[in-house]
Amino acid sequence: MSVPRTDEPAPAVANADAPPAGRRRWLIVRRVVGGIVLLLVVLWLVLYITRGRFLRHPFERTVRALTSRQVSVAGDFQLYFDPIAIKFYAEGIRIANPSWATKPMLFAADRIDTRISPWSLIFGKRRLYWLDLTNGAVDLEWNAAHTTNSWTFSEKKGGKPLDFPSIDRATVTGTTVRYLDSRLKLLADLKIDDIQSADARIGHAVGLTGKGIVRSTPFTLTARLLTPDATAARGQNRLTMTAYAAHNRIDVAGTLPTIADIENVPLQVRANGRNLAELLHIIGVVIPQTRTYALHAQLVQSGTDYRFTRMAGTFGDSDLSGKFTVSDVEPRIHVAAELATRTLDIVDVAPFIGYNPDIVASQGAVAAAAATGAAPARLMPDAALPVADMGNFDANVHYTVRVVRSRNVPIADIDLTVALRDRQLQLSPLTFAMSRGNVAADVMMDAQRRPAHIDYDIRLAPTPMGRLLSGFGVVDAGTTGTIHGRIQLAGDGDSIHRSLANANGRIAIVMPAGTLSTRNVQLAELDIGTFVQRMFQHQLKAPVAINCGLIGFTVRNGAAAADPIIIDTTKNVITGRGGFDFGSEAVDLAFRADGKKFSLFSGQSPVGLKGYFSKPSLAVVSPQLMARAGSALGLALLATPPAAILAFVDVGDAKAAACGPVLAGATANAQRTTKGKPREDVGNGTPSTTGGKRKFLGIF
Length: 700
Known about the structure:
Elements: H1 21-50, H2 56-67, E1 71-73, E2 77-81, E3 86-96, E4 105-116, H3 118-123, E5 127-134, E6 137-141, E7 166-173, E8 175-181, E9 186-192, E10 195-197, E11 206-214, E12 217-225, H4 228-232, E13 237-245, E14 248-256, E15 267-273, H5 276-281, E16 293-302, E17 305-315, E18 318-327, E19 333-345, H6 357-363, H7 365-371, E20 393-405, E21 411-421, E22 424-434, E23 437-446, E24 453-464, H8 465-468, E25 482-492, H9 496-501, E26 504-511, E27 514-516, H10 519-525, H11 528-537, E28 544-556, E29 559-569, E30 572-581, E31 586-595, E32 607-612, E33 615-619, H12 623-638, H13 641-644, H14 659-663, E34 688-690, E35 693-695
Parallel strand pairs: 5-7, 6-8, 19-20
Antiparallel strand pairs: 1-3, 2-3, 3-4, 4-5, 4-6, 7-10, 8-9, 9-11, 11-12, 12-13, 13-14, 14-15, 15-16, 16-17, 17-18, 18-19, 20-21, 21-22, 22-23, 23-24, 24-25, 25-26, 26-28, 27-28, 28-29, 29-30, 30-31, 31-32, 32-33, 34-35
């Protein structure tokens, strides 16, 4: 039998006074919670009594750490619970911008007094019970790469949208906003109207005024936020804006998802002003001058693209519709457009060749040319082409016109493609219908060369003369003749006039067989008997039968010399000599009509065309004719009066033209009579030079 060991411990006896384990844990929790509550009460009491003024420096350090921005409060500071809401009060508060910004402060205010819902800070939907803001100044900027903005407190690519807390009641006075957008090249300084709100409702539109610069062009604007309550609640933002810049008015209306975000948002845009060129020059795009315009379109900005669609309106007395896109890309802006005009007034075409359309409409083309610096009586404008600005943008534009409103020349169905790339401009192809004939042209301008080099190639398909020249006295009835031709010139110069003044090339206008009915042809034939007889018998419009005709010029250094001028009719052979000068715009031409049959009264001497492009004059009685009249007078004195008639007798020895070289547009040295002999009466394509001045005939 074993004996229990006396050294083993006795079994433990439970302490009847100790609480159970679960109760002990509950006591611990209660004490911890009680301690926390007591601490919070003490903290609340301390904050309430001190108004939390001692937290100013910890507040500055904490916000600085969270935002990586310098924060300072210059005056009184309060931060405490009152009783539950967080009371925040600061005088002279400043929050710095990031280092890349152009202004030092993102936000500054003389005074901010607000109560914040603590739960909104916990659950993320910020809410202010009330806000009193005095003389707040906000600077909103995008960095140069447009990858982040000043109000995003992180390096998040693209930057966060500008967001506002929900505000139940607010009084906001003296608020200014500065906005800088590197992509838009826009700087705006805005002043917001004072705001009073209650129950989270402002109840009326909030206006703002301001000024700024967009792409070096100053502007002023007024705007109205029509839905400020929705804006304060982070809802949609419906606004209208009117801006004035470079004599233009631009109205914008739309609904933005956030107050500072127009990306992919349709905006309705209207613009009107005295000159559409002034509007587009704001964004660096150069077009010819226009008369007053009024246009409206829908604008959508997406990345670097600004798309204008559903465009319609007028410029001058012409209409315009279509769409275009401006892409703000490096190294140059790019413009792509599809434009259409139903009716284009001829005056509105004037800017495309350098005229001011308003002067053309009121004073005529000569006055418009003079306004460009052209010499007196000159017709071609001397307006410099915008060579320097052409390097700012590239373009691809397709433009169509249904009808051109013109008194003299009926033009329709214009189809033009414009391509500009790195200062090389092409107007090609350019086609239009003119009096049932078609014109095709290619104009190439290389502004990389200094001065610019311009190539002109204009081709006229066979066109009825009756309709083509109806505005110049040609009668359609009885006219069956046609005209076709080509102008090929190339010259250097920064204006149309300068490039033509030194141009080289050829001009050829060919008339196949047909009839022509016009007073001036009879005058050119200068058959005195026929002219007088028909003048009194009203028969001057009787058709003249044309076998073939060629009006050709060789152009050297701006001087166009006849090469050749020959028109073969059933009665006469009309030849011409002389030429004209693109530089001085002087004209010195002489036309001679030799009869193929005997005519008793025929001047048989030149009809002169002299003067200038703007004011040509017809010299019917030329020096040769006067000399012949003198001869007639001498014969009358020396012989019998009938002898005087002999001086005006045309024996009808004109040599008919071989139409082959004429219809081929050949130069003078290739022209022949019907008997194959060379012609020496049709010009040789070379002007003479006397005393350093170009001369053609020296007759006038």
